């Protein structure tokens, strides 16, 4: 059976429709060129590098903030402990007459007769605070080896003041203490040029021990 005239006309219209495709349609049908793929990969690489850089920067900033927070907390913890103990210096209910604070340019020496037995041989009655520069620690000693109190301590200094607020080295004249504690971050920050890359925080406090004859 011979095909009808209408079927032949339909086939002609289909073939003529294909021939009317635009250049863009033919380009889309045959896929991307190598140059186009390289351009796309380059753009993706730039976007990925930007994302990684941003993420790394956020991690660095977060880590730095955590270190700064820890640095401040260390300074407060150290100062709170030293001040609390220094305020009790010279407690002498038995009236023995020992020096509550003994002048020492390196260590803060505190004497307290906690149980009132007239001697300082009991636990925590003779205490010394000092800075271990090699280990970056504030240590507390009660006669044996100094126990670490706070880490990442860069400096610890004590000035001894008389009743007029002047510096003194005489034990009977000591009425106040001017204490300074400097802590630092645990890690170096290569973006921070000072102090070898370590950020620091300093707390200062003037302490008046209530048993040294000045505080009410």
Q: Please give the largest β-sheet.
A: 5 strands, antiparallel
Strand content: 15-25%
Number of helices: 3
First CA to last CA: what distance? 128 Å
CA gyration radius, whole angstroms = 39 Å
Count of distinct structural domains:
1
User: How many DSSP-defined strands?
Assistant: 8
Query: Pairing-aware structural class of the strands and helices?
Result: alpha+beta
Oligomer: single chain
General description of the model:
This protein is an alpha+beta fold. The chain has one domain. Helix content is about 35%, strand content about 25%. The protein is built from 3 helices and 8 strands, in the order αααββββββββ. The strands form 2 sheets. It has a 5-stranded antiparallel β-sheet with strand order 1-2-3-4-5, with helices on one face. It has a 3-stranded antiparallel β-sheet with strand order 6-7-8, with helices on one face. The protein is rod-shaped and about 110 Å long.
Question: What is shown here, in short?
Answer:
By secondary structure, the chain is of the alpha+beta class. Helix content is 35%, strand content 23%.
